[in-house]
Amino acid sequence: MELIRNFSIIAHVDHGKSTLADRLLEYTGSVSRRELKDQMLDTLEIERERGITIKLQAVKMFYRAEDGNTYTLHLIDTPGHVDFSYEVSRALAACEGAILLVDATQGIEAQTVANFWKAVEQDLVILPVINKIDLPSADPERVKKQIEDILGLPSEDVLLISAKEGIGIKQVLEAIVKRIPPPKGNAQAPLKALIFDSYYDPYRGAVAFVRVFDGEVKPGMRIRLFSTGKEFEVTEVGAQTPKMTKFEKLSAGEVGYIAASIKDVRDIKIGDTITDAKNPASSPVPGFRPAKPMVYAGIYPSEGYTYEELRDALEKYSINDAAIQYEPETSPALGLGFRVGFLGLLHMEIVQERLEREYGVSIITTAPSVVYRVRLKNGEIKEIRNPSELPENWGYIDAIEEPFVLITIITPKDYVGNIMSLCQEKRGIQKKFVYLDPNTVMLEYEMPLSEVIMDFHDKIKGVSKGYASYDYEFLGFREEDLVKLNVFINNEPVDALSFIVHRDKAYRRARQLVEKLKEVIPRQLFEVKVQAGIGNKIIASERIPPLRANVTAKCYGGDITRKKKLLEKQKEGKKRLKQFGKVELPQEAFLTVLKVE
Ligand code: GTP
């Protein structure tokens, strides 16, 4: 165990994590240059295209150090997006150290700070490394000072490298073996292995990536999962070198994979502990939390695809993604579909894209919404994933709570004014305002997640010309003055169009909504009243004037084929309409509303 080092690279997006990982592999002779081209650590097609690392993986390398010893290095990859912050924390829990990589031209960004604190929480030894020193605009002195002032890491410990040019790579490897401590653990104790990632392999079944803390695991052994008590027999253990390579066993201190003919990835929960079924450990690795979707949206088949096709695609997709949850849902406008829970917006985009691209169904996704917690007067707590699930009688409700996040923003000082107004508009509560250096400011706000998922990303990039970066973490549910906005068409409530909104914003949203609806609802033979209200109290109203008479009236009796055509058209239009009271709403009406800003 003395010769093992377990570490991660933590960095803001694009600061060079994958490039450095490739260099380390190359330097330790783990993979050929040709293979490197495929960017070993990013396996999924979409990840490569977006340049985002989503799946965690762990690579074993062997490094012959200056002291003459050959060390086993396990590099554990961490996902680089805020949706996966729990997964990041579990990957870090598997390590003793982390390389904190900062771009020499950009300096510290929001994700750098967020990840730094996660590493500190896990008591990791942190090696600060400044990357991209080859660039003419690199300012390593400024970044060193930031690292010292903001993160409190002494500037003499900072390494300067260029992952692209291969400068300073050996120093990084030496620092890993000299400064990061070897793992502790007891190889004789009962098995205790932390799951930090999983994936579905058509040959091996669901595979768990683990860090073994105590004991050992080998094929033939019966293992048990702590959170569920489920048992399986190990068929294979091994590690990525970076190819999947079988080993005889994994022992205390080591990192690798376990396969046990597990059919469902849902049985391998990230953060859970694997132990020996015959001789179980007395307690699990602390910190387990079941995956919990924070954002929900409806997914429906587009025209030309069926509900069954969508169901099959979702089933297949979810074999590989234990984090999504879905259940059937019917919408009066969109028909049969699913309510799907995601970890966040990026996760949602990934699912959407993969369903369409890899599973061949074309889909309609409704606007995402957060989970609300409703406290009823009888003491019951209900989780609401769809506003239509709110109790009919408002009198039963004691309070509605919504998820809040702590958002950290780093920006050049010129945009601070814009960003503060944006955050205020988004119901943010300022918690911190500090200068990181004379030109850079860090802000912290507590903010409702619903405001973040709406359009925060585009807006903050817009008001800062793309320079501000942000990251957030979940704080908890908070009671807010939330109301249900109901929509009425000719006095009939249309439940599918209702949503939950803060009282202060209800008027504006109600106005926008009725105006949009007025645009998309076709004129009828009678006047249509479109209204929005809190409960039954109407706060915005529009009227759609009636069509004067039959559309053919304009034809002055003339051309009969033309008349026919118009009538045909009218019929066709009707097919796509849904009846509401006497009024028929086109699918478009629902979509514009469900996608309303
Ligand atoms: P994510 O996977 O999106 O988190 O990004 P990453 O942090 O893995 O960054 P990646 O390694 O993909 O590098 C981002 C960009 O920076 C790429 O275009 C790299 O070629 C470039 N890059 C990385 N290291 C260096 C460096 O040392 N010098 C220069 N000039 N460019 C670099």
TrEMBL record:
<dbReference type="GO" id="GO:0003924">
    <property type="term" value="F:GTPase activity"/>
</dbReference>
<comment type="similarity">
    <text>Belongs to the TRAFAC class translation factor GTPase superfamily. Classic translation factor GTPase family. LepA subfamily.</text>
</comment>
<dbReference type="GO" id="GO:0045727">
    <property type="term" value="P:positive regulation of translation"/>
</dbReference>
<dbReference type="GO" id="GO:0043022">
    <property type="term" value="F:ribosome binding"/>
</dbReference>
<keyword id="KW-0547">Nucleotide-binding</keyword>
<dbReference type="Pfam" id="PF00009">
    <property type="entry name" value="GTP_EFTU"/>
</dbReference>
<dbReference type="InterPro" id="IPR000795">
    <property type="entry name" value="T_Tr_GTP-bd_dom"/>
</dbReference>
<protein>
    <recommendedName>
        <fullName>Elongation factor 4</fullName>
        <ecNumber>3.6.5.n1</ecNumber>
    </recommendedName>
</protein>
<dbReference type="InterPro" id="IPR000640">
    <property type="entry name" value="EFG_V-like"/>
</dbReference>
<dbReference type="Pfam" id="PF06421">
    <property type="entry name" value="LepA_C"/>
</dbReference>
<dbReference type="GO" id="GO:0005886">
    <property type="term" value="C:plasma membrane"/>
</dbReference>
<feature type="binding site">
    <location>
        <begin position="131"/>
        <end position="134"/>
    </location>
    <ligand>
        <name>GTP</name>
    </ligand>
</feature>
<dbReference type="InterPro" id="IPR027417">
    <property type="entry name" value="P-loop_NTPase"/>
</dbReference>
<dbReference type="InterPro" id="IPR005225">
    <property type="entry name" value="Small_GTP-bd"/>
</dbReference>
<dbReference type="InterPro" id="IPR035654">
    <property type="entry name" value="LepA_IV"/>
</dbReference>
<keyword id="KW-0472">Membrane</keyword>
<feature type="domain" description="Tr-type G">
    <location>
        <begin position="2"/>
        <end position="184"/>
    </location>
</feature>
<dbReference type="Pfam" id="PF03144">
    <property type="entry name" value="GTP_EFTU_D2"/>
</dbReference>
<dbReference type="GO" id="GO:0005525">
    <property type="term" value="F:GTP binding"/>
</dbReference>
<comment type="similarity">
    <text>Belongs to the GTP-binding elongation factor family. LepA subfamily.</text>
</comment>
<dbReference type="InterPro" id="IPR031157">
    <property type="entry name" value="G_TR_CS"/>
</dbReference>
<keyword id="KW-0648">Protein biosynthesis</keyword>
<dbReference type="GO" id="GO:0003746">
    <property type="term" value="F:translation elongation factor activity"/>
</dbReference>
<dbReference type="Pfam" id="PF00679">
    <property type="entry name" value="EFG_C"/>
</dbReference>
<keyword id="KW-0342">GTP-binding</keyword>
<comment type="function">
    <text>Required for accurate and efficient protein synthesis under certain stress conditions. May act as a fidelity factor of the translation reaction, by catalyzing a one-codon backward translocation of tRNAs on improperly translocated ribosomes. Back-translocation proceeds from a post-translocation (POST) complex to a pre-translocation (PRE) complex, thus giving elongation factor G a second chance to translocate the tRNAs correctly. Binds to ribosomes in a GTP-dependent manner.</text>
</comment>
<dbReference type="InterPro" id="IPR035647">
    <property type="entry name" value="EFG_III/V"/>
</dbReference>
<dbReference type="InterPro" id="IPR004161">
    <property type="entry name" value="EFTu-like_2"/>
</dbReference>
<dbReference type="InterPro" id="IPR013842">
    <property type="entry name" value="LepA_CTD"/>
</dbReference>
<dbReference type="InterPro" id="IPR009000">
    <property type="entry name" value="Transl_B-barrel_sf"/>
</dbReference>
<dbReference type="InterPro" id="IPR038363">
    <property type="entry name" value="LepA_C_sf"/>
</dbReference>
<dbReference type="InterPro" id="IPR006297">
    <property type="entry name" value="EF-4"/>
</dbReference>
<keyword id="KW-1003">Cell membrane</keyword>
<feature type="binding site">
    <location>
        <begin position="14"/>
        <end position="19"/>
    </location>
    <ligand>
        <name>GTP</name>
    </ligand>
</feature>
<keyword id="KW-0378">Hydrolase</keyword>
